[in-house]
Amino acid sequence: MDRLERRKKPFSEGRVAALQYVSLAVFLYLISGFWQLQVRGRDLYAEQAERNRIKSLPLLAPRGRILDRDGRVLADNHSSFSVILSRAQFEESHLAAIADGLNLTEAEVHGRLRRFRVAPEYEALVLKQGLTEQEVAFVEAHRQEFPELELIRSQRRLYPADGFASHLTGYVGEVSEAELNLPEFATFEQGAVVGKAGLERQYNDILTGVDGRRQVVVDSRGREQEVIAVQDGKPGRSIRLTIDLDLQAAAELAMQGRKGAVVALDPRNGEVLALVSTPNYDPNQFAGRIRAADWKRLQEDPDKPMLNRAIQAQLAPGSAFKPIVAMAGLETGAIDENFSVGCGGGAFFFGNHFACHVKTGHGGVSLHRGMAQSCDVYFYNVGNRTGIDAIAEYAEAAGLGRRTGIDLPHEAEGVVPSSKWKMRHLRQKWYAGETISVAIGQGALTVTPIQLAAAIGGLLSGGVWHRPHLLSDEEMRAIRPGFQAAPPRETPLAPENVAKIANGLWAVVNEGGTGVRARIPGYDIAGKTGTSQLASVEFAKARAERDYQDNAWFVGVFPRQNPELVVLALFEHGEHGNLAAPIVRDVMKAYLDKQIRRQLTERHDLAPQPVQVGAALVGGAGSRP
Amino acid sequence: MKQSFRDLDWTLLGFSLAIALLGILQIYSATRATVWRGAHYKQILWILLGLAVFWLASRIDYHTLLGRAPLLYLLCVLGLVAVLAVGVVRHGARRWIALGLFDLQVSEFAKLVLILVVARYLADLRQDTVSAADLLKIGVLVGVPMLLVMKQPDLGTALSIAPVAAGALLVAGLKWKHAAGLLLAGALVMPLGWQFLKEYQKERLITFVDPSRDPRGSGYQLIQSRIAIGAGGLWGKGVGQGTQTQLRFLPVPHTDFIFSAYAEEHGFAGVLLALALYFVVLMRILSNAQTAADRAGALICVSVGAVLLFHLLVNVGMVIGRMPVTGIPLPMMSYGGSSLLTVFLMLGLVNSVRLRRFVN
């Protein structure tokens, strides 16, 4: 038989049939196994099910803490009780009494049951967290009556009082159904407590621990008979911020009763030392579940306490923008240091009259005086010579008109107008007259406080802008393996131009300029005031309410060149920028005081040498030209 | 081509899809309140993809594939070596190669290649019985990929390669004394092989023999699985009502332990239904072996049948505590792309044989 024929010759029938019998045998073997378990063992398991009930109880893992740069606590946990409800044992007739005892409305209990309707019935749901003593007593006293209720230990989030740093920490709450669909919450289950805003949200994955679970067999009275399995939880990791509680406290104190924001950062590396937005809210209200009425009140408050003004308020910077205009003028050669104009209280451009904030005029104004006195007419001319697109180029290089990338959710972008921007968004040509407004930080220009603080800091550092951030690079590497800090954005600026601007800003504070109230004698502090009209829509509305006032800005730096600290204050409806200056001075003072304290203690530690208080003071003062 | 479309084994395909549908429902029920929620949608996508590869495989003449078998074998061995070198470690084992969109489990596809290699070799034998020399060569051909998979370590998948050879050898004329010799050798090698097993593999085997020895550790899964099945009773507890499944006593109720989740919620009646579906699928595959145009075609069908039977025996046997815990999936029901695609490719091969049964 040749090979090809052999290939076609069928195998013996018996061999394949044998395989069929083997299959049949395997199936019968398997079925007999199921018969044993499911039919013959049915009574045994039915009885077991009757006698034993299995409960699966969560072991809630505490969240990581939020610490300041020195390890002081900003968000902590305290132990409390939560009550859980086993729906398998729940009876509708208990609802009214349970709701009453736990200070919940019946609708709230119903809503809760509805939200968990797709979860298996045997899984206990957390009915209320952070019980009061009376509520704990209520559950304890009704063990027999309501076997479906059970107390478990849990950790409740605790934030500082009075909303201190609330816009930084944010708050936690139960994950909503809508949030469960977001990728960032994909690994969470219903009922989980997650960060909803601020750092709690930004670093939710780090702060969240892994909940454990205890599976216990209970008898018909709900008493634990046997622990079947314990899966230990894992507490969340704490994060250490770059925030300095001393500066944060000084800023919060200075802003008390005012509306606005304060940002303090180190432009050498982008570390944010303080970030305040007022009015604030009490994140403790959210720690369990916020009452509907409280939520509504917060949402409808015209002062918008939930808005983080430091990163979300988009306002015209006013004169605080002038350093950038001056830099654009100097760098492009549109003006030189000898450029000066005469100010008569106003000037005509393209047929329109533009007023200076000093009605009587400043007389002859040079760059130095223009900055110190914040002369509008001087900057109208600088802007007119420089042109909108060069101004926009430098504003964008400084990081305006785009998110800074600070590690907080929902940062706003602001707007840097330019001819291209206008064409794209309004489909209109740019009018040269509009440049005049932008030159003094008005017009379509809007910035956020964090943007402006970073922009001015980087400008005076010679054109190096670091991304503002709340977790140091070191901490980021620790919590996110493989993290690489983005390099700073750089646009090298001529050192002599930076020096001219820096000297102008020094004069604002130290030569009787508009920012004298930020002065701390003996320290090389420079800065710029800004007084801006509200953006046009808001302007009209506010005016109708007749309580319209300007926004006050002040951005201060220390020392004037290559600063190690930038502090910006925004005082909404603060009338004039010089009212924001004392806020900046308070924060700077806290910074300098701390430096002195540190130097003193360091000397003490090291030191057989005598402590020289005066030398320490001068040492902190930086160089003076 | 229209002719061939009508001539596909629709019974085989229909019953397979019915099993896959049971799988989708069970995956939905077992995962809806867990972090795997939505897995049933992915499963549906995998099944659609499976149908596409099924269609492709049935269109290709299996003789073409047999011609390429040596090349495929080489690629497969290289692939397995690559897994050991650059594979992704998950659950403590290096089994996957990351392909961006998904992770490929090469060992699953190794089975397919071996089906072709073994069929080609045995179809060319000069006698109606398998000589000792042939047996040795087959042993080496199958042994190399098996050892590579075992090294990952993945004992379950490695063992599931063996039935490819076993089924084909049985039909091709394995001598009874050789069969007996192999079984004896296996029995002798086992104590020797024991010391090469990983610690967790030893534990699983010990607890298979005596689950009560460590009720909270590795015996846990076995006990819980048996409770789940027993509690299902005759008619089951209903979809989404199985306490064992929903309370997560079953560690992976949508993959390896899907059948115990199914048995808990659908009872003995549901189990009989599912096993009946599997039985019809197997019988169809073997009947295609009998009608094949040549020996190679018959061997392909037989090997596919043997692999499915082995999977069924080991996985279902595992959930009822009659087989050790090895972590191999249940074909067509368990969640997972690699397993599904392999099964549909194998069914496609069977249909490729079927469509060419009248040639010449």
How would you characterize the overall build of this protein?
The complex is a heterodimer of chains A (625) and B (360). By secondary structure, chain A is an alpha+beta fold. Chain A has two domains: 54-240, Alpha-Beta Complex (Penicillin-binding protein 2a (Domain 2)); 245-282 and 306-606, 3-Layer(aba) Sandwich (Beta-lactamase), CATH 3.40.710.10. Chain A has 25 helices and 21 strands. In chain A, the strands form seven sheets. In chain A, strands 2, 3, 4, 5 and 10 form a five-stranded mixed sheet that branches. In chain A, strands 12-11-21-20-19 form a five-stranded antiparallel sheet, sandwiched between helices. A three-stranded antiparallel sheet of chain A has the order 1-8-9. In chain A, helix 14 packs across helix 16 (376-386), helix 14 (322-332) packs antiparallel against helix 22 (495-510) and helix 15 crosses helix 22. The termini of chain A are far apart. Residues 535-540 and 607-625 of chain A have low confidence and may be disordered. Chain B is mainly alpha-helical and 360 residues long. Chain B has one domain (2-355). In chain B, 71% of the residues lie in helices and 3% in strands. Chain B contains 14 helices and three strands. A three-stranded antiparallel sheet of chain B has the order 1-2-3, covered by helices on one side. In chain B, strand 2 (93-98) and strand 3 (103-104) form a beta hairpin. The longest helix of chain B has 34 residues, at 258-291. Chain B starts with a helix and ends in a 5-residue tail after the last helix. At the A-B interface, helix 1, helix 2 and helix 3 of A face helix 7, helix 10, helix 12 and helix 13 of B.
Secondary structure: elements and pairs:
The complex is a heterodimer of chains A (625) and B (360).
Chain A: H1 3-8, H2 13-40, H3 42-51, E1 53-59, E2 66-67, E3 73-85, H4 95-101, H5 106-115, E4 125-128, H6 133-141, E5 149-158, H7 166-169, E6 172-174, H8 177-180, E7 193-195, H9 198-202, H10 204-207, E8 212-218, E9 224-231, E10 239-240, H11 245-254, E11 260-266, E12 271-278, H12 292-300, H13 309-312, H14 322-332, E13 341-343, E14 346-349, E15 352-355, E16 363-365, H15 367-373, H16 376-386, H17 388-397, H18 419-426, H19 432-439, H20 449-460, E17 464-465, H21 473-479, E18 489-490, H22 495-510, E19 526-532, H23 536-544, E20 551-558, E21 565-571, H24 581-606, H25 613-619
Parallel strand pairs in A: 2-10
Antiparallel strand pairs in A: 1-8, 2-3, 3-4, 3-5, 6-7, 8-9, 11-12, 11-21, 13-16, 14-15, 17-18, 19-20, 20-21
Helix pairs in contact in A: 11-24, 14-16, 14-17, 14-22, 15-22, 16-19
Chain B: H1 2-7, H2 10-31, H3 39-59, H4 62-86, E1 88-90, E2 93-98, E3 103-104, H5 106-123, H6 132-150, H7 155-172, H8 176-194, H9 199-209, H10 219-232, H11 243-246, H12 258-291, H13 295-319, H14 337-355
Antiparallel strand pairs in B: 1-2, 2-3
Helix pairs in contact in B: 2-3, 2-12, 3-14, 4-5, 4-6, 5-6, 5-7, 5-13, 5-14, 6-7, 7-13, 10-12, 12-13, 12-14, 13-14
